[in-house]
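Narrative of activities, Objective 1.

The group set out to show that a structural description can be obtained from nothing but a protein's sequence at a throughput compatible with the screening campaign. Below is one input-output pair from the validation batch, recorded exactly as produced.
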Amino acid sequence: MKKTILKIEGMTCSACSNGLEKFLKKQKGIEEASVNLVMATASITYDDKLSILDLENYVEEAGFKSLGEEKLFEKPKEEKQTPYIVLGILGIFVMYLTMHHMLKLPSIPFLDMKKNPGIYSVTLLILTIPYLFYSWDIIKSGVKNAIHRMPNMDTLVTLGITASFLYSVYGVILVLMGHMEHTHHLYFESVIFVIYFMKLGRYISNKSKNKTKEAIQELVKITPNKTHLKKDDFYQDITIDEVKKGDILICLPGEKVAVDGEIVKGKSMFDDSFITGESIPQEKTVGSKIIAGSINYDNVIEYKAERIGKDSTISEIVRLVVEATNTKAPIAQTADKICLYFVPMVIVIAAVTMALNWILTKDFSMSIMRMVTVLVVACPCALGLATPLSLVVSVGASAKKGILIKDNESLEQAGKVDMIVMDKTGTLTNGMLTISEIHNHSDLPKEEVLNILASIEKYSTHPLSIGINKYVKEEKIEANLDLIMEELPGYGLKGKDDKNTYYACNAALLKKLDIINSYEEEEKEMAKKGNSIIYLVKNKKVIATFGLIDMVRKEADKLIKVLKDKKIEVVMLTGDNEITASKIAKELGIEKVVAGVTPKEKAEYVKERIKEGHRVMMVGDGINDAPSLTSATVGVSLASGTDIATNAANIVLVSNNLLRIEEITRISRKTLKNIRQNLFWAFIYNLIMIPIATGIIPKVEISPMIACLAMIASSLFVTLNALRLKRIGKAR
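Output recorded for this entry:
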């Protein structure tokens, strides 16, 4: 299966996006499709037999236009304001012609309704024509969607302005035939102002929608356009596009890092706040990884380019954020189902309104106007935008804080969790372990024992392995054994050469392999001090034990207190021994500890809690905890920026700051509250305004122009309310 995101032109309301999504899902070869009205994109999963051209043809068949694959780093085009100014002035002139007598203003003699009714009527007709041409995109969309049985907002407006225009043209013909009284039944100004306000409202709405994408666009702008390439003893300026993997680049003080890489010379303080949300600069030295967009504070550094273009961390983050906005939260799916029936229902109400008014009043002119008012006042836009706008703003703002939400369903569920299950090593602790105790139980020299251990651990990315590798590097121990390696998830590592078989493992593997463990008391003593224990085995005999200690994260105790205050149960779930786990749990105030479990057992534990009715958030390192992360209601992974693509979790904390876990739940609740406010407004608006438009409420009547303004105001209200969520992206 392949996946792509297409940029779509021609979607104007939720009926469009829902109709296109439904149409795409029916096509052979398309596994899944999700259409985002706010981002104007379609995320499509399809089989290898289809091409991008096939997908674009499907979009065309549905009545829309594909603009090709979404270019994440492309700046949105700004629409020109000139047409709105010109047509606005022309509209004011039309209003003066038709309403000057109401305001007791002087008339234009040769265009006076009473003195020259023929010229007056024809002039209004001629002045309306440019507006019809200007609204051709609305009319075209409305007709196309009606033909495809996917009526949308444009269909409603098209029906309204067509009915008004044709009835008014009929009136002009009667005036020219001598029936002067029909000058009072021309509704060209309604056609003009419905079109004008629709286009103007859409222009304002598009500008507002672009504001919802600002967080994503700011991520795009993080990397500089140029950098310095080292060449011999000099450096030359090159563009970002000219950088090749392996190039040695130079970053001067005050400049931004151009691409992801590794420092090969120098050390300096770097500000990664754009990606981690942390304001405190971090020191980086030779061997340290640096991320594109980081600001170099102090010194000149040289670094090797590693991840460039689409492979860079920033590109990966932007891709994840865009993909997240294309997923559907359960609350959005409910709103979509309602929108699916909304437009056809409005058309029926409008038709019934016209028929009943005509039967009861015998006034065809008034019946037409009430029908048009119903069609124009109904606002599927507000209903359709209520959910996706809030989600786009929230996901984008969260990304600025270093919280990458991969799907909207997880964002919705995060605020409902009542249990948070946390891994210990690398999650509650820093994961930066170091060897604190070495007990050699062999005749081999200490250096040889460390050489064996380092040779087994040197390619592993587990926190214990990283701590060992760091220690042996500092001790200048060579890891020179050529071993065939095998990872044993939940137990440790196995290394083998022609003569020997080695294990760097925990006590559970000794038991599984029937290896005699004479050092259980020694393990207990080390564990009491907070050590994690590794047994080094050579040919089924323990030759050494190592204690590695890890510091608890400074913010961990604060997080546990906050979660307890929110009545969220916290469980420590770890593969480490019970003594070490209990010591750290007691230090943090965690009451429930499950220790000595394998990755499989972790996943089973999470599944059992969900079966009991809990909504479980699992927090882990994203690699060994992958099974439990995918089993949880919401999986949260702590990861460095360069590891983003490898995580199995629904949400990634780029900053590794545990307090972000509480923020995830807070962001989720605020987002859901915002969505509910939008949906409430959209329902109440339509519930009040549609009955008013039908004329069933005594002494309350509105014109198509006022109806159009009300409809635009409703959409803008929803948009502006969603934009309030941008504040969650600001650091607390």
